[in-house]
Amino acid sequence: MALVVVLFAVTRPPASVTPTSHPTSSASASWGLPFTSPDGTETGQWQVVSDQWEADGLHATIRIAVQRGPFQPAFVAFVNNSADIIQPLPSADFPLGFGQSMSSGDDRTGTLIFPMQQGSATIILGDSWGSQLSALPVSG
To answer: Which residues of the chain have pLDDT under 50?
Structure first.
């Protein structure tokens, strides 16, 4: 008696794949440079919206948005061929102000004035603890 083994290949149609979309969080944005504090408790993004050299120095309009806070931004700048750190002057239309905290979800724009000689420069975003979080170039 011969044993005959018959193999059947069973093929199943592939399961239908339903495309799904993953909504983008409203906290993420497609503009600016991200920043994160060293301990990760403060996050957001910022950008130099515009800059102009005037007789009294660099006028930089900056936008900053906080995803996770509170966050107290601090800014300094330097001309790239110098080691001198320049603190900004108070500016009436910059709503952040030093020592003013921003909460999660805050998005503000304003102008800082850095009294410095014209030249290629860098603006540094820091926190209230003096940590440098991010930097953006400015043309001279």
So the answer is: 1-28
